[in-house]
Specification:
The protein is α/β, with parallel strands linked by helices. It is built from eight helices and seven strands, in the order βαβαβαβαβαβαααβ. The chain has one domain: 3-Layer(aba) Sandwich (Rossmann fold), CATH 3.40.50. The protein is globular, with a radius of gyration of 18 Å.
Length: about 270
Amino acid sequence: MVEFGLNGKTAIVTGGSAGIGLATAKALYREGVKVAIAARNPERLEQAVNSIRELSPTSASQPIGDVIAISADVSQAEGIEKIVSQTLSHFGQVDILVNNAGSARAGSFLDLGDDAFVEAWNLKLLGYIRLVRAIVPDLIERRNGQIINIVGGAGRTPRANFLPGGTTNAALLNFTRGISKELAQYNIRINAISPGLTATERAEHLAEQTSQSLGISVEQYKAEILRSIPLGRIIPPEEIANLVLFLVSDLAASITGAEILVDGGTTPGV
């Protein structure tokens, strides 16, 4: 069994009430990490916390972690402040940040107004940037920290019917690589994970929007997407969570400013 050495650390996971965020929070918790999950819906957060607390540690000798829920909107500066201040108040420090909250509307470019772009940029791009800025002073003081930005393949391979999300993801890749050089001097590592089609509610919603913009059924769209994946499978959120565990551990101590694609071989470029 792989030893990640994360016991006793504290993590913030945004978008932690479902999908990749919830899978990541569960994986960290089972490794003995104290986790603050943040999302907008209080009821879903409560359900998520209950499901996390039902988990057992990864081994009999592994202490279980702790978890709290923070209802906040990361598209607003006050939401960022709430997440960080409540985490520090409850746990005393932050060692790991997993930026995962974010969604964008799919659709034909001519059918999307400025609001579709602004919403995506405020929620995901500025949300990620503001959270990094908010926790970095604490990480610099202790000269240690790990940050993961969950981005997405559309930042590297643009899609005509997903431009708000694609432009956001491209900007986040630029931010991740650029800021990594400044943070490295303080032993703070920041990396990006770009999942392909993942089995989440968010992916289902995007499939509905995209198929509608293309004038085809959801089933037809899903079949076409599946055929375009060389490995021919949809990614379970737990696979992304496992990669997060590796990247925030000392097993990946020399990896920073990187983007790791988890897309079944879909991305065509180098």
